[in-house]
Amino acid sequence: MTEAEALIALNQLPVTGPVKIRRLLEHFGSAVNALKQPNTTLQHVQGIGPEAAKIISNWQSHADPSTELALAKERNIHILTQEDEDYPVALRDAYDAPVILYVWGKLEERDLHSIGIVGSRKLTHYGREAARKFAFQLAGAGLTVISGLARGIDTAAHEGALAAKGRTIGVLGSGLLQLYPPENLALAEKIADGNGAIISEFPLQTSPDRKTFPQRNRIVAYWSRAILVVECPSRSGSLITANLANEAGRQIYAVPGPIDRPTSGGCHDLIRDGATLVTDGSQILDDFSHLNFSTPKDEEPRPAETYLDLSDEENAVLKALDRDDLSIDEVVNATQLPAHKISVILMKLELRNLVLTLPGQRFKRRR
Length: 367
Prior knowledge:
Elements: H1 3-12, H2 18-28, H3 31-35, H4 39-42, H5 50-57, H6 65-74, E1 78-81, H7 89-92, E2 100-105, E3 114-118, H8 125-140, E4 144-147, H9 153-163, E5 168-171, H10 185-192, E6 196-200, H11 212-223, E7 226-229, H12 237-247, E8 251-254, H13 265-272, E9 276-277, H14 281-287, H15 312-320, E10 326-327, H16 328-335, H17 339-351, E11 355-358, E12 362-365
Parallel strand pairs: 3-4, 3-7, 4-5, 5-6, 7-8, 8-9
Antiparallel strand pairs: 1-2, 2-6, 10-12, 11-12
Helix pairs in contact: 1-6, 8-9, 8-14, 8-17, 11-12, 15-17
């Protein structure tokens, strides 16, 4: 058995999280040696009680690393350990760093320059558009957008990054073959197909539960150079991510919302506690200006006035706005395009200085 196979086996056991596995490695020198130990010896390791020792010493009944490796190869999923060159540098030194990372897609060196965008699953139209706008601006400037592929703000953040043709990474609270939520499979496929990666520390067939999501949050917090909270109530898993990032010395940004809406209460709490209030991606990019990052040369953002490669759908939206300012519903009626697609197109056109947003969520073509 190789060391990688032994680590996969330990990671598959129900009683060994990353902290316990690290203690086993420190005590026995390797994962291979840890799996060879009898029950009584294992109990000498800090945090390994009788139950855990019994399962580890009888690991063959609970783990099957060879089948896991075969399944990963079949699905074109890469399995990384901390010894692999592609393992994210930002995670490597954390005391509870993932022992194993399953990667669908490709990680790149430039993903070191990343920002986590998080928020509520139950988002408003305001939150959705804000998340897409910030992700579009930040990914378009060369930052990798990291989020949890969850419903709500996470989904909007990934969509905004893709719309900018930037990179984005989705960190799952489940195994890659139990992708949750299932309706985001198409989004995950688009990310993994040359635009970033979907990753998880959990064995491939792991179903999501209340414990897996907080574990996922720490990866987003540690990997990101900063965390942007777009919209969330005062009790939200997004605040866990922000607090973990803050403890790790990361910068926290928060988008303000209407003061009479509890959907932004968590953001207002963060701002009151010292998070930086932001209303545009340029404010975050100013703070990142000391870093040497950018999009590849063949993808450098062009000045807004030089954009001549609009799609047929983008041209249809511009044509609809030729005569008068319109609401999203009115643009939908004029173009027969779905509302979610119209929202993305309007955001892209606004960022290209071709469309202006008016009060009351109406849109006007710039002249």
